[in-house]
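Why does residue order matter? Because the sequence determines the fold. Keep that principle in mind as you read this record.
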Amino acid sequence: MGYNKLYAKYLIERKKIPSYFISLILNQLIKNKKNNLILDFGGGFGHIAKKFPKKPLKIIIDKDFLSLYFNLNRKNKNFFYICYEFKKNIPIKNKSIDNFVFSDGFCNIKNQFLFLKEIKRIIKNNSPGYISQILSKKVKTFKEYNLSNPKTIEKYLKKLKFNNFKIIPSSIIWHNLKNKQILNLNKNFVLKNKRIYNIIIFPNKIKNLKIDLVFNLYKKTKINFYQDNDLLSDLKSDYKYE
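Structure:
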């Protein structure tokens, strides 16, 4: 993605848009253990990585050298940076990653099955992680990107033998945040006609995700829906959201 006006505005407004808060909620899947290895794919600018637990080692992969360079200049501890654009593989050893994160970038991946296959290859067994802000073919705002069918993604995950995964519409996570409700991972979520959704991989012992800490930040922030009209459409159809 180039540095056009829309992308520049996205970087400036990142901490005010709903997808940022959704990623912060999903960050609870990350373990705060020394020597654990976190992969943040597409996280060059570091908005989400700054909220990771301090103890683990972090690898950030992004095709945008300038974003990585900006992040490098912050002199963050326990961070490693790789400038790389995904085409066929991820330059990481087999079964080496303890947690993975891919926030707001899945729509830039052309071969999404191959990407998920690579994630499966590099993560350890039962390693939790998430892919957020996946755009379905029903979105109207981002037609130029690689849009997905949630049922097709579900088939991919089953074929690749991912254990304990959920595909959750962003509208549900946002509704729970707005109402300070725990996100119950035991529920079955309706995907039909939803525009934006998220993949969550989690171990059996994780039953829900808390909202409290992110809720406090949400209440202090003036939310900007400028790039999330499709999320608003989902919220209006599901919850009569105004």
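The two ends are 32 Å apart (CA to CA).
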